[in-house]
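Recall that a protein's primary structure is simply its ordered list of amino acids. Everything else, from secondary elements to tertiary packing, is in principle encoded there. The following example makes that idea concrete.
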Amino acid sequence: MNLTLFDLDNTLLSGDSDFEWAQFLIEKKVLDREVYEARNDAFYEQYKDGTLDIHAFLDFQLKPLSRHPRHTLDEWRAEFMRVKILPIMRPRGRELVARHRADLCAIVTATNSFVTAPIAREFGIEHLIATEPVQAGGEFTGAVAGTPCFREGKITQLELWLKGRGQTLQSFGESRFYSDSLNDLPLLTRVTHPVAVDPDDTLRAHAQQHGWQIISLEGRVED
């Protein structure tokens, strides 16, 4: 069996679920637009630039989960899936996942598991490796459990997940990781088949320099 890993935001999705969740809460007036919209935009630009302070961002992202009961959050998340996520699920992303059905597949994402678990299910991917929010009595505390699944943290969380299965990356004849972002270079360099998907400029240059495959799920023709 081969191992196939997928980044989520701007890879299988034609947008960023982190960003869209905050925008959704702003539009519902759960978060104050004047205070949060500028911060949401700023964090997103930092992510794209490779300068994001993940702990500052997670404080921004997870604190709102701690202010509302879980049943309310679950209702909001179902609406979020309908209005924000389903429209940006790339059909070519679904096709790509389907081509790897025989592999052991997982989404590996920095976005927290509360937001991304239903997205993984919608793509038909059983395994999700994500940033985990702390829960107490079924309610969110606003804190992060363990290492955030971001940059080198994706390797840490992947290795923990594989260890729990009695495996390592070396257990697989082939391992693939599909991603769009320079932030995923640490994990991309660890798999046997790194694939840049509609990559940012930094990742594209790195992929071209090292002869990595470059593909588009937006229908663009890649070299």
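The mean pLDDT is 96. The radius of gyration is 17 Å.
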